[in-house]
Amino acid sequence: MIKVAVTGATGYAGGEVLRLLLAHPEVEIGALTAGSSAGSRFGEHQPHLLPLADRIVAETTADNLAGHDVVFLALPHGASGAVAAQLPDDVLVIDCGADHRLESSDDWAAYYGGDHAGTWPYGMPELITGSSRQRDALAGVRRIAVPGCNVTAVTLGLQPAVAAGIVESTDLVAVLANGFSGAGKALKTHLLASEGLGSASPYGVGGTHRHIPEIAQNLGRAGADEVTISFTPTLVPMARGILATATARLAPGVDADAARAVYEKAYGAEPFVHLLPEGQWPTTAATLGANVAHVQLAVDERAGRLVTVTAIDNLVKGTAGGAIQSMNLALGLPETTGLTTIGVAP
Ligand SMILES: NC(=O)C1=CN([C@@H]2O[C@H](COP(=O)(O)OP(=O)(O)OC[C@H]3O[C@@H](n4cnc5c(N)ncnc54)[C@H](OP(=O)(O)O)[C@@H]3O)[C@@H](O)[C@H]2O)C=CC1
Ligand SMILES: CC(=O)N[C@@H](CCC(=O)OP(=O)(O)O)C(=O)O
């Protein structure tokens, strides 16, 4: 069995990693660590994870993380680098946070601030990288940076068109509806039920959201020379889910059939990206609890734009499921081990 520790186990991302790992046939769950909740009973924080309820949350120290084959980091931004530096090179370390996603230290400084911890192999197996996919780069690695959840939705929506050159990558627009859990468990005023229930509110407006450089990095790897994207997330009253509408100016002469053929070719063999039948549009409800992205596209002839819509569960395909998919690849297991595309709607 593969022995796995989870840091940030009391949070949303750590909890979801554990929920999925409990169904993984090759995994045994070891240390559960966190910050201020160390010493408390795990069941107080994650009552839905009954098999682990009587465990005691440990401090996040190198000693407590020793003796594991895999360590998941589900810590706030900026906290992963120091913990990872204490872990041996032969341990597979999977960072669900942002610390190791970006190649450019300038981008890190501009969007996150502080010192950049470094760049790790990027955990999005479906990412188009020239003539191959990122999954080929994950075999045998011992460090993985899990993508941002919004980044996963927007990248999967746009990358086939960008890679095939059927859109202008300098004229991209993405508007997203985002569930509350994306912001984590820590209390924030705008996430109070009295503020957020019955309301939709934009945040990170005007080119300020920290996922913009990561999306540009991905679409650059997919083949774009230059990427300009207007990106606007909107908080909507649902616990989980992201619905990303991403549009792009079409290259001359590209019609709906040609665009659809590009997406069918890109995603026909992907186990966790599902191109819906023509005319059926993604909903977040259909992806909840599932390691899957539902994708659809249309050509808006009057506007001259390709319109893509992608739905994911931010905590599954957007975090924990994607992380376990990458773990499987790194360890040489079948990519789909322990993961399901079956959701829990309604
Ligand atoms: N929520 C989401 O949809 C996604 C989250 N992520 C990333 O996952 C990471 C965790 O996010 P999320 O689960 O939402 O956040 P939460 O606020 O829900 O959880 C944070 C976790 O980190 C622990 N923690 C906080 N500070 C420290 C510290 N100094 N040392 C050790 N443990 C600490 C907390 O423990 P304690 O209980 O003791 O406070 C808690 O377990 C972030 O980097 C986030 O960006 C990535 C993709 C999507
Ligand atoms: C509603 C909400 O605030 N969502 C968060 C989701 C970010 C996320 O979880 O991704 P990271 O791992 O990069 O933090 C946001 O859009 O910033």
Automatic annotation (TrEMBL):
Q: Write out the entry's keywords from A to Z.
A: Amino-acid biosynthesis, Arginine biosynthesis, Cytoplasm, NADP, Oxidoreductase
InterPro entries (alphabetical): AGPR, AGPR_AS, AGPR_dimerisation_dom, AGPR_type-1, NAD(P)-bd_dom_sf, Semialdehyde_DH_NAD-bd
Does Kinase appear among the keywords? no
Subcellular location(s): the record lists: Cytoplasm
**Domain of life of the organism in this record?**
Bacteria
UniProt entry tagged with the keyword Plastid: no
Reactions the enzyme catalyzes: N-acetyl-L-glutamate 5-semialdehyde + phosphate + NADP(+) = N-acetyl-L-glutamyl 5-phosphate + NADPH + H(+)
Q: Which CDD domains did the record assign? A: AGPR_1_actinobacAGPR_like, AGPR_1_C
For molecular function, the Gene Ontology terms on record are: N-acetyl-gamma-glutamyl-phosphate reductase activity; NAD binding; NADP+ binding
Which pathway does it operate in? Amino-acid biosynthesis; L-arginine biosynthesis; N(2)-acetyl-L-ornithine from L-glutamate: step 3/4
Any single Pfam family the record assigns to this protein: Semialdhyde_dh
GO BP annotations, alphabetical order: L-arginine biosynthetic process
The terms describing its cellular component in GO are: cytoplasm
Annotated ranges, domain Semialdehyde dehydrogenase NAD-binding: 3-135
Enzyme Commission no: 1.2.1.38
Q: Which residues form the active site?
A: C149
Q: What does this protein do?
A: Catalyzes the NADPH-dependent reduction of N-acetyl-5-glutamyl phosphate to yield N-acetyl-L-glutamate 5-semialdehyde.
Q: Which family does it belong to?
A: Belongs to the NAGSA dehydrogenase family. Type 1 subfamily.
Q: What is this protein called?
A: N-acetyl-gamma-glutamyl-phosphate reductase
State the species of origin.
Aeromicrobium choanae
